TrEMBL record:
Subunit structure: Homodimer.
Superkingdom of origin organism: Eukaryota
Taxonomic path: Eukaryota, Viridiplantae, Streptophyta, Embryophyta, Tracheophyta
Listed EC numbers: 4.1.3.38
InterPro entries on file: Aminodeoxychorismate_lyase_IV (IPR017824), Aminotrans_IV (IPR001544), Aminotransferase-like (IPR036038), BCAT-like_C (IPR043132), BCAT-like_N (IPR043131), Class-IV_PLP-Dep_Aminotrnsfr (IPR050571)
Catalytic activity: 4-amino-4-deoxychorismate = 4-aminobenzoate + pyruvate + H(+)
Transmembrane regions listed in the UniProt entry: none
Protein name from the UniProt record: aminodeoxychorismate lyase
Length: 349
């Protein structure tokens, strides 16, 4: 796990002038010398952003951020042959771990990645990792890869698949401020890759960068047929003028776990007479931009209101009441939902 506060050991003058004859690259003669250097860098970080990591290559949990690394010849690193998922840690509970774990297994099957352990073992590792981290609020991210072996295109030289996981200390909170978005001009992933949560996120990165360059928070993908697809790493939902919650079909996009949970919870607002209905269907750009309210749906949000799209206001151009009612539903589920949604972490104090 790379520390983003590091600085280069090479001479800036040499780099700028291209004078490689004066460049002297340090050679680390021992692992202890390298570890000392890494510890020096991490000693400048006041709070560890990654309190714990698991690696099947190491065969255990790592608490020292200086050695939270993965092999460079892992097929996930140099060929993008890996899948991942994320669960939320909130108030000492893991939220929706099982549905996210089920999804990474589906993604792994599509990516033809074998499991290094049974599902029950993976689940136990993730719970123990969270306990060892002592983190009460953050995210738990985990990867399945074809594993290390060589640098070839085929994973046939990677004898054992790998499992990695890291706890990320993150002080997120319920989103109550609206954001601006744009329609992405970056080509979206084809269905095979869009429906599995894989590590090939370059289109996602470029779409966010495009949005930021235009002063927006993120972007919206529209498919070739002209229907709304998804955001760069979130689903998108709308409240129609008739007060109906609408989400695009999940046939060609990632079926978000939070989006799925929202569709399960939203009928409560229908019963209360607040919403008129809940549905998934193809949504045209014209229909979407004519919505009364709009939102991103994702794990750490859980809902993020969208008030402006391509410099045009959505509805009244302000955070909508129904958006916040749905956000409250999800947030309350995260904080005090049923045992099927929240797993207590067995911390050892």
């Amino acid at each position: 796990m790379e520390n983003h506060t590091h600085s280069t050991t090479l001479s800036n003058t040499s780099s700028e002038l291209g004078n490689h004859t004066d460049l002297k690259v340090h050679v680390f003669n021992s692992s202890s010398e390298l570890l000392e250097k890494l510890h020096q860098r991490w000693s400048k970080v006041e709070k560890k952003p990654y309190p714990a990591m698991y690696s099947s290559v190491y065969g255990g949990i790592i608490l020292d951020p200086a050695i939270m690394v993965i092999p460079i010849d892992d097929h996930m690193v140099h060929r993008g042959h890996g899948v991942f998922d994320t669960a939320i840690i909130l108030d000492g509970y893991l939220y929706e771990l099982d549905v996210h774990l089920d999804r990474i297994l589906r993604s792994a099957a599509k990516a033809k990645i074998s499991l290094p352990f049974p599902r029950s073992t993976l689940r136990s590792i993730l719970i123990q990792l969270t306990a060892a981290s002592k983190c009460k609020k953050g995210t738990l991210r985990y990867w399945l890869s074809a594993g290390p072996g060589n640098f070839l295109l085929s994973p046939s030289g990677c004898p054992t698949p790998a499992f990695y996981a890291v706890v990320i200390d993150d002080d997120f909170s319920q989103c109550k401020e609206g954001v601006k978005v744009i329609t992405s001009t970056v080509a979206m992933k084809p269905p095979l890759f869009a429906t599995m949560k894989n590590v090939n996120y370059l289109p996602n990165v470029l779409s966010v960068m495009e949005a930021e360059e235009k002063g927006a928070f993120a972007s919206i993908w529209v498919d070739e047929a002209g229907y709304i697809a998804e955001g760069p790493n979130v689903n998108v939902a709308f409240i129609t003028q008739e007060k109906e919650l609408v989400m695009p079909l999940f046939d060609n996009i990632l079926h978000g776990c939070t989006a799925k949970r929202l569709l399960e919870l939203a009928p409560q607002l229908v019963e209360q007479g607040i919403l008129k209905g809940v549905t998934t269907k193809n949504v045209t750009v014209e229909e979407a931009k004519g919505a009364a309210e709009m939102m991103y749906v994702g794990s750490t949000l859980p809902l993020l209101p969208i008030i402006m799209w391509d410099d045009q206001p959505i509805g009244k151009g302000e955070v909508g009441e129904l958006t916040m009612a749905l956000s409250d539903l999800l947030w309350n589920d995260m904080v005090a939902g049923p045992d099927t949604q929240r797993i207590p972490v067995p911390y050892i104090e």
